[in-house]
């Protein structure tokens, strides 16, 4: 006869064993690949920087063009700069999350 809590304990134990096995596989894979060089870190740093800078510059260029064509009391350049930085930050976050999932 099994108690109702026994099933939950077995499930929790299996989940714990899966997590441990996944961590072990990541460690083995990291040892096989070796350490990443400083060039990889610089490349990632550059990728994150460009992923923020490019949308911000595109936003500034489009905003400047709109401000030149249709002047108004609102600065489209400033608004699209902020939007570009926000999009760039989301893009950078996505790249960092993607890379950290592989680790």
Q: What spatial form do the alpha-carbon principal axes imply?
A: elongated
Number of domains: 2
Structural class: mainly alpha
Order of helices and strands, N to C? HHH
Helix content: over 70%
> What's the average pLDDT?
83
Q: Which range does the strand content fall in?
A: under 5%
Uncertain stretches of 5 or more adjacent residues: none
**Rg estimate, integer Å:** 24 Å
The number of E-state strands comes to 0
Q: Quickly count the helices.
A: 3
Distance between the termini: 43 Å
Q: What is the makeup of the main sheet? A: none
Question: Can you summarize this structure?
Answer:
The chain has 103 residues and is mainly α.
Q: What is the secondary structure topology, with strand pairs?
A:
Layout: H1 4-33, H2 38-69, H3 76-102
Helix pairs in contact: 2-3
Structure characterization notes:
This protein has 103 residues and is an all-alpha fold. It has 2 domains: 1-35; 36-103. It has helices spanning 4-33, 38-69, 76-102. Helix 2 (38-69) packs antiparallel against helix 3. The chain is elongated. The model has no long low-confidence stretch (mean pLDDT 83).
Summary tags:
103 residues; mainly alpha; 2 domains; 3 helices; elongated
């Amino acid at each position: 006869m099994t108690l109702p809590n026994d099933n939950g304990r077995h499930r929790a134990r299996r989940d714990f064993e899966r997590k441990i096995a996944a961590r072990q596989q990541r460690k083995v894979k990291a040892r096989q690949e070796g350490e990443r060089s400083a060039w990889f870190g610089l490349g990632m740093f550059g990728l994150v920087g460009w992923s923020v800078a490019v949308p911000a510059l595109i936003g500034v260029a489009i905003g400047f063009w709109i401000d030149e064509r249709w002047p108004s009391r609102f600065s489209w350049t400033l608004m699209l700069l902020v939007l570009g930085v926000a999009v760039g930050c989301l893009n950078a976050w996505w790249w960092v999350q993607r890379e950290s999932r592989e680790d």
